[in-house]
Amino acid sequence: MKTIVLANNKGGVGKTTSVLNLADALVARGHTVLLIDGDQQGNLTQSFTYNPPPERTLASVLLGRMELSEAVQEMRPGLYLLPSGGDLNDAVAKRAEQPGAELALRKLLMPVQTDYTIVDTPGSMGKFTDMALTAAHGVLIPVHPEVYGIRGLVNLLGRCDMIVDGLNPSLKILGLFFTQYNRNDRRVVLRSNVEAIEGHSVLGPYVLRSTIRDNVAVKEAQNQKQNLFEYAPESNAATDYTVLTSELLDRLNNE
Q1: Which domain covers residue 69, as residue numbers?
Q2: What region, left, alpha or beta, does residue 30 occupy, with left being phi > 0 and alpha being psi -120 to 50 degrees?
Q3: CB 217 within 8 A of CB 228
Q4: 198 in a domain, yes or no?
Q5: Does residue 202 sit within a domain?
Q6: Inside any domain, residue 142
Q7: Which residues are within 8 A (CB) of 178 and not within 5 positions of it... i.e. 6 or more apart?
């Protein structure tokens, strides 16, 4: 099993959407995937029709009140979810006070038998993101050119370096990819922002070829709580996430 974390210290970059669609793309290839909703807002959990009982959430698992296997539910064939809940931030804070907190998620994931685990993290860096990075084989960073911040992205990579040095030497930066962006886009601001990131000495080497174009099919599928690849298999979004998945697997398997 390999664990992939999607992280960015800004919200509104398409992180949760990308977690969901990458998972569905992997399942479509015959893999099994466990999703972990690490954001108290629970947007990933709300992408499904499942309404988890308060005691069957990530918070309960982190605090040792329930086994991970008891809280995980199958959402679609081959796709499993450890849901979030409104008490997640309090649970993370309590767990952070205990010895070995940084290793908590890594230890919880050791028995997992799915091919991949994908972790959705909050829109700001914090204790849970550190736990996730400590448990991960690789981190993938979605970037929206309209809301990006070079300093924030550099700080995120610096945080990853600290995790590598102190807690998880196996962590790899799998790459940055642009969301809601078309490489043929003529908007000057977006193109300028993309070029600034691609030309940056620290960020540039991590930029992936894949981009996720803005497409209404993504929101429609989420509103219907359906798999994008079944709802709109010919859409630009389905094509883009398929290409991104291929590039992700190449990076992950070649590391």
Answers
A1: 5-182+210-254
A2: left
A3: yes
A4: no
A5: no
A6: yes
A7: 142, 143, 144, 145, 194, 207, 211, 212
Helices (H), strands (E): how many in the chain? 11, 8
CATH number of the domain residue 132 falls in: 3.40.50.300
Q: What pTM does this model have?
A: 0.95
- Both structure tokens of 107: 């230890």
Residues 87, 39: Cα–Cα separation, whole Å: 10
> Computed over its alpha carbons, how large is the radius of gyration of the chain?
17
Examine residue 200 and state whether it is found in any structural domain, yes or no.
no
Residue 191 in tokens: 């193109």
Q: Which amino acid is at 212?
A: I
Give the separation between CA 74 and CA 78, rounded to whole angstroms.
Answer: 7
Please report, in tens digits, the pLDDT of each residue of the chain (255 residues total). Answer: 999 999 998 888 889 999 999 999 999 999 999 999 999 999 999 999 888 888 899 999 999 999 999 999 999 999 999 999 879 999 999 998 988 888 999 999 999 999 999 999 998 888 999 999 999 999 999 998 876 778 889 999 999 999 999 899 999 999 999 998 887 777 778 888 899 999 999 999 999 999 999 889 998 998 888 999 999 999 999 999 999 999 999 988 876
Give the span between the Cα atoms of 24 and 230, in whole angstroms.
Answer: 10
Tell me the CA end-to-end span of the chain in Å, nearest whole number: 15
